[in-house]
């Protein structure tokens, strides 16, 4: 008979975070509500400037979600029907979904086993085989940057732009450079579960290109460049002033929360060093990992997740089915075995609680539960 623990440790505890900033957030919300100015305006402009400075870019343009940020980025560089965009099959659906939404076709390259990110070593052959590729969209998955130098080199040789999907990686660094400042455009998400999460949806697009920034700002309001004057066909994708106000408060704490996540990751690594489980280890070029997720790998992932659930420990599988095997992409003609690393990660990966509010003793409890699972498995062999 399985015993369910009374102790409960959620994967993410947003209520605990909210308690620490509740009065500050409520004061800002009241101020914006009393102003009755909810669409763009000074709240959004101020927050855009803060994010641009933080990411090391000249411009940042707020939008309604990280998914919209990717779509706007593709629209801004005029990707559309007949085009192909190179990306990874091991990521959240929005990455490839944005490509499809503008009428282009995603072309997949497998990921590195150690980093979960785009394997630049496989890109040259794919680029040679797909002359219609007009952009590259690497993903900085789980809070750590992809290996950008070889990606940028190959993109530069072909004269095609790089769009960074930095939805999970605000503040992450590649050789000292911030995510979102390395390619031509970067896209961020403020979904509540992100390191900097709003009280609803929200996103941001970053760039150093003034003309692109102007175009992005127009595209998010139906392509409008003047009142009732539309230079392009855009979309309705604005960052609400209420969300900008909330995010501005949370932004003050982002680096402290990131440091907490990094400390928790180090504790996991110390506690699980002798356990037969694969732990995330940043590569040398990932000079700042921000741990949106702490993803371990186990050949008995599903059994481990059940064991943790019975111990009252929250966890999550990111992602159980790679994009090339999703039903909606059956027309691309891919099958099982086409991207073996992505498929293996989909079978082995499990995210553990890593948020900055989790107590050290809870990390020890989780580590002990993982250790006990592997001890039981070993005794059966």
Model description:
By secondary structure, the chain is of the alpha/beta class. It has 2 domains: 16-109 and 116-251, 3-Layer(aba) Sandwich (Aspartate Aminotransferase, domain 2); 254-380, Alpha-Beta Complex (Aspartate Aminotransferase, domain 1), CATH 3.90.1150.10. 40% of the residues lie in helices and 12% in strands. It contains 12 helices and 13 strands. The strands form 5 sheets. The protein has a 4-stranded mixed sheet, with helices on both faces. It has a 3-stranded parallel sheet with strand order 3-2-4, covered by helices on one side. Strand 6 and strand 7 (177-178) form a beta hairpin. Helix 3 crosses helix 7 (210-219). The model has no long low-confidence stretch (mean pLDDT 96).
Can you describe this structure in just a few lines?
The protein folds into 2 domains: 16-109 and 116-251, Type I PLP-dependent aspartate aminotransferase-like (Major domain) (Aspartate Aminotransferase, domain 2), CATH 3.40.640; 254-380, Aspartate Aminotransferase, domain 1 (Alpha-Beta Complex), CATH 3.90.1150.
Overall geometry comes to globular
- Strand share of the residues? 5-15%
Task: Give me the strand/helix succession.
Answer: HHEHEHEHEHEEEEEHEEHHEHHEH
Q: CATH topology of the largest domain, what is it called?
A: Aspartate Aminotransferase, domain 2
Q: What separation lies between the terminal Cα atoms?
A: 22 Å
The overall strand count is 13
Low-confidence stretches: none
**From the alpha-carbon coordinates, what is the Rg to the nearest angstrom?**
21 Å
Strand order of the largest sheet: 1-9-8-5
Full CATH superfamily name of the largest domain: Type I PLP-dependent aspartate aminotransferase-like (Major domain)
Round the mean pLDDT to the nearest integer and report it: 96
- How many DSSP helices? 12
Question: Which assembly state applies to the chains in this document?
Answer: single chain
Percent of residues in helical segments?
40-55%
Structural class: alpha/beta
| The CATH top-level class label of the largest domain | Alpha Beta
Q: Could you say how many structural domains there are in total?
A: 2
The description of the largest β-sheet is:
4 strands, mixed
Q: What's the CATH architecture of the largest domain? A: 3-Layer(aba) Sandwich
